[in-house]
Structures are given as C-alpha cells and as structure tokens.
Amino acid sequence: MSTALAMLAALVLDRLLGEPRRAHPLVAFGRLADWIEQCMHADQRERGVLAWMLAVLPCVLLIQAVQQCVPAWIAWCVAVIVLYSAIGLRSLGEHARPVANALRNDDLDTARAAVGRMVSRDTASLNAHQVAAAATESVLENGNDAVFGALFWFAVLGAPGAVLYRLANTLDAMWGYRTPRYERFGWSAARIDDVLNFLPARLTAFTYALCGHFESAVRCWHAQAPQWDSPNAGPVMAAGAGALRVKLGGAAPYHGVWEARPELGEGDPPDADTVYRALNLLQRGVAIWMAVALLLGLAMQGGVHA
C-alpha cells in the first residue's frame, strides 16, 4: 500500500508544483552524461555500454543505498521525491495547451513556435493540421516515456526502478540516434531503453484503448504499429491515434528534408481539439492506473493482515 500512496503523492506534487524550475535532476544528469561521452566516446559498442553503466548505475545504487540507511518514513519520502522528479504529467500539459490555444485562435506562427518546443522536427513549414498532429504525437508518446513508464518501474522496483528507467530514457534521447557519431556508441542506450519500455509501452497502448475508442485503438495498434521504426513508440502512438479516432503520422520534415513515415490512426485530421483530447486521454489513463494501484495495495494489505 505504501507504494501506491507514494505514487499518488508524487502525482499530487507534480500537479501542484510541476517540474522543478531550478536544478532539475535530469538537467544535472544530462550535463554528467555529456561529460562522460566527451571522455569516453569511440566508435565502439563496448565503449557505449561502459559509458551507459558509468552514467546510470551509480545513481541507481546511490538511491538504493540511501533508502536502506534511513528510517522507513524517510525512505518513503525519498521515493516520493524521486518519482516526482521522474514524471512530467503537468509539464506535458504546459507544453501542449499553448499549441492548442494558438490553433484555436488561428495564430499559426505562435502554434509553430510552441510545438517546436515539444518536437525535434522542423516546424516552420507545418500547416495547422500538421502542427496539431505533432503536438498530439508528442503527448501520446511522452505519456509513456514521462508518465506511465516511470510509474510502472516504480511499482516494480521502487525508487531505484524509477531512476533506472528515467535515466535510461534520457540517455536514449541523447545517444540513441542512428548517426555516424552514435551508430555504435549509442547502440546500448537505444537497446536498453527498448527493453525497459517493452512492457510499459504496451500497457500504455492498452490504457489508451480503454480510455478511448477501444476497437479502433486495437485495430490500429495491430495493423499499424509494426510499420513504425520504434518497437515501443509504434504501439503507443497507433493505439492512441485509434483511441482518439484521428489521423496521425505521415511525412514530417527533419533537418530540411521531408521524411516518409507510416500513417497512424483513422478518422479525421487533427486540430486544436485533438490536442486537448489527447491530454484528457492521458489524464484518464493515469486515474485508471492509480485506481488499480490503490485497489491492489488494499488487497495485498488485507491479505497480510489475514
């Protein structure tokens, strides 16, 4: 039950405070990862594995050691703070709503600038539907990466699990690119993130299906997810698009070149309302996860007392 209550407390902190404005732990970790990469980079998979271990494992072991050396109530508070630092539910809304608001006001330039803070693609040439699609895709994908994935690994392994997952996800975002610099060095970061996200991504996809148009979500998940490059983003975004009954995916511009991508979902093109509906889908999913966690906690507590 303490795990479920810690999850609830972390979500409440996120709702009240949002992401830390100063000295965010992930920002500090990013600087550490940059330094490790500069010291260790080589066109070798083995060097990338070692760099990953040096960046992640000390942080995981430190959190585990701290929790073992302090009283139980302090360990619980540490767990809450760690999970709060690992999730970004409120932040997703803070980034996505300005996009939707600008689209509703027919202010395409402002919408492009706002969505440019959410995605890595070029946004200057996007039309209104493409801006809405980019924001919606970001909400759906980051719903797994910044919310459900962290909650899952916290439930399984506690605070060390949340740290392991979030740092691995951060290194994938930093090193997991298929470029000449990272093709080999970043291989381990990408593969480890794939492994850690395998179950959370599918649970996230199923959650989206439960919270939206179930049949459409499942149909798009099974038909479209295998066409996506990422084995985990595919199920999440295909199911999410189907749950919203909207068309996502398709060609997108990166570094001045329009890259072909598979289409996701079915139904109407996205608009400002689609972004809001994606945020609502995510919020309903979190409510379901917390209800399940609390019920399981009560059941386990009752079993122990029996």
Tell me the number of helical segments per DSSP (H or I, 4 or more residues long).
Answer: 11
Sheet with most strands = 2 strands, antiparallel
Structural class: mainly alpha
Parts with pLDDT < 50 across at least 5 consecutive residues: none
Q: What is the domain total for the residues?
A: 1
- The H/E string reads HHHHHHHHHHEEEEH
Across the major sheet, the strand order is 1-4
Please estimate the helix content. Answer: over 70%
Q: What is the CA–CA distance across the termini?
A: 15 Å
Number of strands: 4
The best one-word shape is globular
Give the averaged pLDDT, no decimals: 93
Radius of gyration: 20 Å
Strand content: under 5%
Overview of this protein structure:
This protein is 74% helix and 4% strand. It has 306 residues and is mainly alpha-helical. It has one domain. The chain has a two-stranded antiparallel sheet with strand order 1-4. A two-stranded antiparallel ribbon has the order 2-3. Strand 2 and strand 3 form a beta hairpin. Helix 2 crosses helix 7.
Protein topology:
Blueprint: H1 2-17, H2 25-40, H3 45-69, H4 72-86, H5 89-104, H6 108-115, H7 128-175, H8 187-211, H9 214-224, H10 233-244, E1 247-249, E2 252-254, E3 257-259, E4 263-265, H11 272-305
Antiparallel strand pairs: 1-4, 2-3
Helix pairs in contact: 1-4, 1-11, 2-3, 2-7, 3-4, 3-7, 4-7, 5-6, 5-7, 5-11, 6-7, 7-8, 7-10, 7-11, 8-9, 8-10, 8-11, 9-10
